[in-house]
Amino acid sequence: MNDTLRWCVLIPCLNEEKAIGRVVKSALRLGVPVIVIDDGSDDRTPEIVNTMPVSLLCHAQRQGKGEALRTGFREALRRGFDAVVTMDGDGQHLAEDIPRLVDVGKRFPDHIVIGARLLQREQQPKSRRRANAFADWGISWACAQPIADTQSGQRWYPRSALDLVELNAENFVFEAAVLIAASREKGLGIVSVPIASRYEGSFRLSHFSPVRDVMRIAMYTVGRVFHYGSIRASYNRSRAQPLVIDDSYSCRIA
């Protein structure tokens, strides 16, 4: 296991004044650098973050989550980090889960690690569950490998994945594009670590649209399936069970 990796936490956010303070404070307790990317918020989000010992990068106007992540990736590369962990700013992800992702990332150096919302899934609204299942099916096909929870924003990205920063994809499509290109062009594996689904009423309405954004992701994904070819072979590989690492042991969960 490589204990010398330099990594940081990236938090893209938009109008998260209710949660961003506690999210950033929890990330700071990990003792690693934290980079917050504000995507043109018009509430007190940047004001709150600016009081904390983090790097705050601000977009003058809203550009979408993909561009916020791209800004964060560029900054991480500029500062020479070997990997980053991303988490959303609305409180849905817990910093307490990050050490598990980092541990798996160090054990599997040629993998992206996803904090997969496999626990307490009954909290997930049915519409989101259906949308996520559809996305998992299509993106796994495009990646030619099975993936648990392709829509989770809590991820460990190694340096080789960060190098895909200039992919031509925007908004929520960017996260899918990184998975696909990392799989097909970088030969990276994708492994998931179970985390809890958190959809309590305290969260603000998601910026993700189960209709609009799933359609955007679907159109991009279909294009990638045909771009890489070997369509049937890719589909067959994607139908295996995804690799899920649950603490001290590994298992495959359908």
Task: Give the C-alpha Rg.
Answer: 17 Å
- Overall, the morphology is globular
| Largest β sheet strand count, sense and barrel closure | 7 strands, mixed
SSE ordering: EHEHEHEHEHEHHEHHEE
- The end-to-end distance, rounded to whole angstroms, is 28 Å
Q: What is the helix fraction of residues, given as a range?
A: 25-40%
Q: Can you give the mean pLDDT?
A: 90
Poorly predicted sequence stretches spanning 5 or more consecutive residues: 248-254
Descriptive key words:
254 residues; alpha/beta; seven-stranded mixed beta sheet; two-stranded antiparallel sheet; 9 helices; 19% strand; disordered C terminus
Give a verbal description of the structure.
This protein is an alpha/beta fold and 254 residues long. Helices cover 38% and strands 19% of the residues. It has nine helices and nine strands. It has a seven-stranded mixed beta sheet, with helices on both faces. A two-stranded antiparallel ribbon has the order 8-9. The longest helix has 18 residues, at 126-143. The protein is globular, with a radius of gyration of 17 Å. The protein starts with 6 loop residues before the first strand and ends with a strand. Mean pLDDT is 90; it is low at 248-254.
